[in-house]
């Protein structure tokens, strides 16, 4: 498969979907780059094998460990929300391979622009998972220094980070650096104007940016069929850069395809769209109840394609990992869960007025006014208390 043929590939239509965007049957598999089947079998790929050809058993175990620890951390965060320790949590359950594969493909000097769900990518960038929870607990606006790990703060305004990434990438090119930028976004975000503008700008300025779309099939309660009439990766063709669809539950394929796309960016060949075809196994966030809008069979069909299970099968079948490795990892997982729980519970409440700091470097009259209003509002409670 060449880059050109990838971009020019025809949309696949499921039976009976000639004019209307009919929903695919559960488990339907579109054309995609896959190196590890759901059954854990390594399959050859003429174009992308080269990007993982020298991967060692130790590195394979590392990818497995990353996915397991990320899933464990994510489960702990969901539990913490249920116990009232967090206001909200956006789970990545099911998307571990897309995030670990692409995250491990990045170089230290690359810059990453996430959404609010990229806990696995944060892990790969070296951000302490406990620090991801401050915003969800409502005690800070981020919790880490973006420039320490070249990992931007989480972005809730859907799609806006693709513009930030494009601008940053244009700057990287102007600096003459050979680092690359990667922007994460979802299938729902693909409908945002910001994403369309990012595609146009990055294409015409040949910006070194990879657009990594995790098509997890749902944008809250809206299925992908409501976002597009063509496979999402084909959008790239209209902007003049390549798009490729990868099995988002295959960590090896995600690693290989993202490496390829980042290398294109480094060589000055401009943007790439990667559509990681995956599934959001849990709710959109802890505020959502997916049983209201999707069938259990759909989730069950995707359970059979679990990203962690398939790598475990492969590791065991190829004798790359023994029982000792899995047992040790289990212990490490439990320790991570415990530590995260302790750190979160100990997070101090912020000073109420801290929100007015750092809005402008040198302050602003409007912020001063708002601070004064807030102070008066707070004081009004004190008066009430005294009056009683
Ligand atoms: C500009 C904007 N519009 C609407 C929302 C509300 N919103 C939050 S998440 C979401 C769905 C996003 O879906 P998708 O891009 O597929 O990402 P996913 O949550 O599935 O990872 C919406 C509409 C928002 N945060 N920002
Ligand atoms: Mg989505």
Strand content: 5-15%
Helix content, binned percent: 40-55%
Instruction: Return the CATH topology of the largest domain.
Output: Rossmann fold
**Total E-strand runs:** 7
Number of helices: 14
Radius of gyration computed on alpha carbons: 22 Å
CATH architecture level-2 label of the largest domain? 3-Layer(aba) Sandwich
CATH fourth-tier homologous superfamily of the largest domain: Thiamin diphosphate (ThDP)-binding fold, Pyr/PP domains
Associated small molecules: thiamine diphosphate, magnesium ion
User: Structural class of the helices, strands and pairings?
Assistant: alpha/beta
Query: In whole angstroms, how far apart are the ends?
Result: 77 Å
Largest sheet: 5 strands, parallel
Total individual domains: 2
Order of helices and strands: HHHEHHHHEHEEEHEHEHHHH
Mean pLDDT across all amino acids: 92
As residue ranges, the low-confidence spans are: 1-22, 24-28
């Amino acid at each position: 498969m060449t880059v050109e043929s990838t971009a020019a590939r025809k949309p696949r239509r499921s039976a009976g979907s000639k004019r209307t965007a009919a929903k695919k049957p559960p488990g339907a598999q579109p054309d995609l780059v896959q190196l590890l089947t759901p059954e854990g079998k390594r399959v050859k790929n003429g174009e992308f094998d080269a990007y993982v050809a020298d991967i060692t058993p130790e590195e394979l175990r590392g990818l497995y460990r990353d996915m397991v620890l990320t899933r464990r951390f994510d489960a702990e965060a969901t539990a913490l929300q249920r116990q009232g320790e967090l206001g909200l949590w956006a789970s990545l359950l099911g998307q571990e391979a897309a995030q670990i594969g692409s995250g491990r493909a990045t170089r230290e000097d690359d810059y990453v622009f996430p959404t609010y769900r990229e806990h696995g990518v944060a892990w790969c960038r070296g951000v302490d998972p406990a620090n991801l929870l401050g915003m969800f607990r409502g005690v800070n606006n981020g919790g880490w220094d973006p420039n320490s790990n070249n990992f931007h703060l989480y972005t809730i305004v859907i799609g806006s980070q693709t513009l930030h990434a494009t601008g940053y990438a244009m700057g990287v090119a102007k600096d003459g650096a050979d680092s690359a930028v990667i922007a994460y976004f979802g299938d729902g975000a693909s409908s945002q104007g910001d994403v369309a503008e990012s595609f146009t700008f990055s294409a015409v300025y040949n910006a070194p940016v990879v657009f990594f779309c995790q098509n997890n099939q749902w944008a809250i309660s809206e299925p992908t069929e409501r976002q597009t009439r063509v496979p999402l990766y084909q959008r790239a063709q209209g902007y003049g850069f390549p798009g490729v669809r990868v099995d988002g539950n295959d960590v090896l394929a995600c690693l290989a395809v993202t490496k390829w796309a980042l290398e294109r960016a480094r060589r000055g060949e401009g943007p790439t769209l990667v559509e990681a075809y995956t599934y959001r196994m849990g709710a959109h966030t802890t505020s959502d109840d997916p049983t209201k809008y999707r069938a259990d069979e759909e989730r069950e069909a995707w359970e059979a394609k679990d990203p962690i299970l398939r790598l475990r099968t492969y590791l065991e079948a190829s004798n790359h990992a023994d029982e000792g490795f899995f047992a040790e990892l289990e212990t490490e997982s439990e320790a991570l869960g415990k530590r995260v729980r302790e750190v979160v519970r100990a997070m101090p409440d912020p000073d109420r007025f801290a929100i007015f700091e750092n809005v402008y470097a040198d302050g602003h009259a409007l912020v001063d006014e708002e601070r004064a209003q807030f102070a008066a509002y707070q004081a009004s409670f004190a008066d009430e208390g005294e009056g009683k």
